[in-house]
Amino acid sequence: MPEGAVMFERLGRTMVRRRWWVLGLAVAFIAFAGIWGTQVFGKLVGGGFDDPASESSRALTRAEAELGREGNDVVVLYRSATLTADDPAFQQAVTSTLSDLPSDVVTGSATYWSTKSPTFVSKDKHETFAVLTLAGDDEETRTDQLEQIEGDLAAPGLESEVGGSTAINRDINERVSADIAKAETLSMPVLLILLVIIFGSLAAASLPLAVGGLAILGAFTALRGLSYLTDVSIFSVNVVTILGLGLAIDYGLFMVGRFREELGRGLSVEDAVARTMGTAGRTVAVSGVTVAVSLAGLLIFPITFLRSMGLGGLSAVLIAMVAALTVLPALFGVLGHRVDALSVRRLFRRKATVSADVEHGFWYRLARSIMRRPVVYTVGVLAVLLIAATPFLRVEFGGIDARALPAGTESRVVSETLDRDFVPNSQSPIDAIVTSSSGLDQYVADVRKVDGVTGASVTAQEGNTARVSITYDGDPISAESRELVSRIREVPAPSGGEVLVGGQTAALADQLKTVGDRLPWMALIVVGATFVLLFLAFGSLVLPVKAILMNVLSLGASFGALVLIFQEGHLSGLLNFTSTGTLEATQPILVLGIVFGLSMDYEVFLMSRMREEYDRTGDNTQAVAVGLQRSGKIITSAALLILVVIGLFSISGITFIKLIGVAMLIAVLVDATIVRALLVPATMRLLGDLNWWAPGPLRRLYARYGIHEEGSATPPAPVPAGVGS
């Protein structure tokens, strides 16, 4: 028996013999995490979509250091049906309101009357806006400052609405928190019912929930600890909830099923737990590490949002895995045969042998049917998946703006009003931070000549540093605006000086470049590590390649749907969001990391049972049919349950959270049904014994250190001539 199998069996026996100590420590951890870990929400930050090392970030840092912080933290829109901005009464109402604001909260303000700039007045002159800069070095502090003065911003006799970057970020964060609570409230009753139906008893159904609770609370605790070392995005809570609960259900299904199977063979409780850990426990460990590797690829990005999602996902996955390998066997030891207590399926039980169940099961018959016509199924499924992926060829990447909020949200209404009724992009100019002792006027003149620029002027100057604000027509997150940034960056700096170009559009251009530069490295890390892990799990060089290609097909179908739905706006009315004509670039990267890991989770479950049967019989066709029969229900049940969790995130009011939910829903649905149930058996039949091929030295390596489910150390047989024909 391989050393790893012995280790896991010993771990299982230890957990049973020390079960009360293990459960006591688990309860203590839950208490600590429930008190300390759940306070993580006050430590998380919003935003985090920019690369801190980019030119746009350096421009912002220099501007704040040399010119002082100047931002549109709060934009207050004032409107009158009868007065215009030139009327003294309009001016008096606004200026007196702003002058009463505390100076320790509002450090700066700009209005039409203080700047004399026409950009502050609407085309019909019945609207104007004030820009306020708030005290505070971080978004959390500025949000507190906004809420302190928000009730004092209304001017007498005028209509007023509050927007700006701080208000938008606050509204997004609050909506995300509300959506998480709503999703959990709606999903939990559905999950409980489905768990009871799928597991067949209340006792068994409670086990994955225990692991899920540990995973979620543990991940919250880990994130709070990490928040003292680095910024952690509030959006990481979403991935913690999805993966913590989803993987706990996956691992619970797999291990409970195997534990019942071993008890059914007449083993004692301790022996059944040891056997479960030596087989299913090892598979859970491989799955957990594989999913963790996929999410670890997100850590290569310097963007806080992606890095936070990686940290949150890693925490949830690893804690779910550890809990499944420690707390779950301890609970098995406590429950024993009572794992089926409070059964809801006693009337439907059939007394049948394992072999009869296998040979007459639905999944066995389906696999046999598919393998009789493998070419037809392979070509048909590949055609469907490739056609579904083709829309992704016309993808256009963009960024996040106020349109991520639901229509009618006050901060979004302010943003849309400024774009519609005022000078376009007056609140999102391209800023050039110029550091030079001379030549500023010539630089401004050169910038005005750039194709696409509608105006350029010095809006702040201190010593040798100046801010040049550049206006333009068009959407700030469009490709055309990003190309304009590139043309502005090509304008020569004044002699002996330096220019850093920043602003919303420049930040988006830099973000896309960072993502594009790091994505190949992420792919290399994830694919390489996954290949090694799958070889150690299955002892084959062919299966890892096939598994990776199938994951790419699942992701391609999902990404194609994203273009149709979110970029082109199909189903926008049904899903209740506003299409910007682009996809925010970090979201597909996040979906890639999560879905790649989940797909490999299902792959490991399926192939481990096939590997076990192939080691026992040496018959590839029988191994595929039996493996699908023994894991098909588990995979589809796990997918159904995680779809409940993921699907409810698709009703989020925040567009990019909705996008994540829809993308994962489609990918998991495609992977767990079309790919695992149809394409895998068909391709396994076509390849025959070649599925299990590895050169001699690697076969011996696998025989000694392989992470396969069966305790046997039998290496895969050499491939005879003509296999797979």
UniProtKB/TrEMBL annotation:
PROSITE patterns: SSD (PS50156). It holds the Pfam family MMPL. The keyword Cell wall biogenesis/degradation does not apply. It is found in: Cell membrane. Residues 202-334 form the SSD domain. InterPro entries: MMPL_dom, Mycobact_MmpL, SSD. The keyword Transmembrane helix applies. The chain crosses the membrane at residues 20-38, 190-220, 232-256, 284-305, 311-336, 375-393, 521-541, 548-567, 587-606, 634-654, 660-679. Its main location: membrane. Coiled coil: none annotated. Keywords: Cell membrane, Membrane, Transmembrane, Transmembrane helix. It is a multi-pass membrane protein. Belongs to the resistance-nodulation-cell division (RND) (TC 2.A.6) family. MmpL subfamily. PANTHER family: MEMBRANE PROTEIN MJ1562-RELATED (PTHR33406), MEMBRANE PROTEIN SCO6666-RELATED (PTHR33406:SF11). This is MMPL family transporter. It comes from Cryptosporangium japonicum.
